[in-house]
Structure formats: structure tokens, C-alpha cells
Amino acid sequence: MHIPFCKQACNYCNFHFSTSIRNKNDFVSSLLKEIELQHHFLGNECIKTIYFGGGTPSLLTFEDLGEIFLCLRNNFNIDPDPEITLEANPDDISGKKLSHWRSAGINRLSIGVQSFFDEDLHWMNRAHHASQSLSSISAALVEGFSNISIDLIYGTPTLSDGNWNRNIDQALELGIPHLSCYALTVEPKTLLSKLIAEKKSKDIDPSDQARQFELLMNWLKGAGYEHYEISNFAQPGYRSKHNASYWEGKNYLGLGPSAHSYNGLFRQWNVSDNARYIQALKNGGLAFEKEELTPVQRLNEYIMISLRTSEGCDLIYIEKKFAKMAMTRLAESASTHQERSMLRVEAKRIILNDQGKLFADGIASDLFFVNL
Asked: Kind and range of the H or E element at 344?
């Protein structure tokens, strides 16, 4: 569920959101209507994970969450013990909220820390301070949240290797079982892109990003974390079940403005406009676009997503799902990268090595099919 509101805009963000919450009540009412309209999308499949993303879902009130959960239970077959994640910013977290979230059924938090240094947070135009990250995590642990993930960003002009090391050490000292670590990307039409173009901010350095990614892999491997997806690291038993379902190609339903859905054959995405989203549902319908995927598109999407995971690309799955010819051709195409020590083929799976992870998108693109 995409909750499209934020207190302020981070300068690097290109997700859909609004910094005005004056339409929040109308949005929640519309979201409830969309839940009812989309109850058939997944058939009667048992819902095992629910994810409140954003935007900033921690801006929802306890009453908002109560209404949403009641509507979900009335319209979907939900597993008795689902993974329910809420993304939260450190400045939104309080003891009272944490208690409310747990009583509502939230059992996993994804906290947008980004850095434990104020210099980095100021450069990103984040709404919180480093001290709030520490206090919010401590409060969550006291409240009984053991399944916690934090986001960290590396490769910014303000982040030295030493401070990057201290960021990771801080996460390890706190006992955080899951880390999502992202290289900063300068997206078009963002404030950061504009600032760099106007020479008001230093540009990112790809070599710094590559080095800090390699350091990250070494540090967390040494600490016993599984590098189970390019940007995600987990202690055993703490992988994100929800995000893993995307990488495994499972069906999912997205609710809210700009949210995406997938059923194995086609994908659809809601309009990235709060007002149009709300008005469409007031009129009893949905505002979305839809794309039916060809077999080649489905295959290429599987290659791209699976290569990002520690399990890699399953050649047997490709043979069964697509064609033996596709499996053979893919194995042959992968051999060039294997010779360069970018990947390995073991147990009929193509798996990126650490060096290959630096070039994951390019390698996937090289392996894409034009036709079947």
C-alpha cells in the first residue's frame, strides 16, 4: 500500500508523494474503496505479507490503520501470521505510536535512517536528525519490535569511508537484523539533479560508490549477514518476505496512487496523482494503466530480477516456464561473463559473484532475449 504523503521532500527522491496532507482523510476513504474494488485481483489466494510503503506511512493515525486493517480482513483471505511491515521515519516514531502499531498487527518496521551523521542527513534534506534515529530504534526495541530493518545510503559526496564504516558498526551494535543499503542515484527531475546541474551541489562519484559497496559486502559478510539481494542484507531468518516475493516473481496487489500490481501475465499501475486517484474512486472506478506482458518480456524480467538475488537465475525454471532453447541460449550467453569471473553457474543456476554485483544491470541487459 502506497501512502503518498511526506513532511518534506528529500532532494534525491523521485517517488510519488505530496508534502500536503490536507487530502489525507479523502485518500484513506478512497483507499478503502480501492481495497473493496480489488478484492478479486488475487483470487482467494492467502495473503502472507502486507507492506505499508510511501511516502511516509508512519503519518497515518491509529484510526486510519484500524480502518484499513478492518477493510483488508473483510475483503481478503489473510494468513493467521502474516508479515506486516510499516515504513517509518525516525522523527515520526514515539512510544505511543509504537504501542499502537503493535496492537494493530504491525510486526516489522522499516526505518528510514539513511545515515547516523547529521552532515549526510542535511545534504539529503531529511526531516530527522541522527539522534532521532538512535532514540527511535531504541524505543522500537523496548516496545518489543525485534524484526527491524533500516535503510542506509552510501556514495554521497558527504560520506567518507570512515563514516560509512561507522554507520555499519552502529547498525551492528544496535543488533539490527536487516539492512537495506542503496547507492545514491541522481534521478532526472529531482531537486538533487537540479542542484548538481547548477553546480550548487557536488555530483556523485561512481568509483566512490563501487568502493563503498565492496566494503559493505565485506563488512556484513564478516558479521554473518546473508547478502540475499543486491541491496539487502539479513541475519539468518530475517529476510524480508514481502520484498522476496517480488524477486521470486510472485503475484502482488498494489493499492494507492502510483502503486503497481502484477499477476504473472500483466502489470498495472495506478495514476501518480492524488487528486485524480481520489476522484476516480469517488466516481466508483479506478484510474490506472495496464500492460500485458509478452513471453519475452516475462523472461527478461525474470532474468533481471533473479540475478539480483543470492539464489540467482534458475535455468530449470526457464526450461519449464519458457523453452529448452531459452535455457541453452542463456547458459551460452552467460559463459562470457563467467570467463571474466563476474558470475558462476552451479546446480543449474546463474549466480553473480561479488564483482558481478557491481555490474548487475549491465550483465542482465547482456543476457536479455530479443525473441523466443
From this structure: strand 343-346
pLDDT tens string 239-285: 999 999 998 889 999 999 999 999 988 999 999 999 999 999 999 99
Angle at 11 between CA 57 and CA 187, to 5 degrees: 100
For residue 220, the number of C-alpha atoms closer than 13 Å in the C-beta half-sphere is 31
**Kind of pairing between the strands at 178-183 and 2-3:** unpaired
Give the CATH number, domain containing residue 346: 1.10.10
Q: At what angle do helices 24-37 and 274-282 cross, to 10 degrees?
A: 50
Q: What is the maximum alpha-carbon separation in the chain?
A: 58
Last residue of a domain, one of 207, 229, 247: 247
Give the pLDDT confidence of 293-344 residue by residue, as tens digits.
Answer: 999 999 999 999 999 999 999 999 999 999 899 999 999 999 999 999 999 9
**Structural contact between residues 255 and 2, judged by C-beta atoms closer than 8 angstroms:** yes
Residue 290 lies in a domain: no
Rounded-to-integer distance, Cα 256 and Cα 269, Å: 9
**How many whole angstroms separate alpha carbon 33 and alpha carbon 7?**
25
User: End-to-end distance of the chain based on CA atoms, in angstroms?
Assistant: 35
Query: In the structure grid, which three cell numbers stand for residue 88, read together?
Result: 517509518
Domain boundary among the residues 231, 247, 263 is at 247
Residues 297, 289: Cα–Cα separation, whole Å: 17
